[in-house]
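Need a sequence for this fold. Nothing fancy.
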């Protein structure tokens, strides 16, 4: 009969192997998504309807605010405790306002895969 320590070690090893395999699968999937993105961009494709089961499309992700120096951002974008309201900053930057200490970073396109239900 196995002792508890040996059984625990075996369970840990199985968990590690499963976790490692999952990580490898995720990495392969990300690599495939990058390849699909490149091919679609090179061919000026925004969407591909492969068949009735799935489609692939490019999705534009929202931009994000980068606060690189919170001390120079005008106080109208901060609370009483000098916490920067990034939503206000983003709205102002989106409207073209220049704000010292912040800029708007445009996110890259992303591939979205939609699996349609099988009937």
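Here you go.
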């Amino acid at each position: 009969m196995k002792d508890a320590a040996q059984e625990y070690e075996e369970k840990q090893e199985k968990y590690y192997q499963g976790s490692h395999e999952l990580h490898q699968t995720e990495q392969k999937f990300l690599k495939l998504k990058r390849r699909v993105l490149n091919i679609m961009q090179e061919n000026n494709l925004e969407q591909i309807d492969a068949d009735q089961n799935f489609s692939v499309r490019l999705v534009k992700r929202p931009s994000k605010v980068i606060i690189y120096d919170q001390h120079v951002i005008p106080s109208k974008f901060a609370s009483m405790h000098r916490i920067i309201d990034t939503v206000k900053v983003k709205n102002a930057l989106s409207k073209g306002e220049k704000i010292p200490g912040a800029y708007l970073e445009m996110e890259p396109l992303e591939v979205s895969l939609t699996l349609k239900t099988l009937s």
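For context: The first helix runs from residue 4 to 42.
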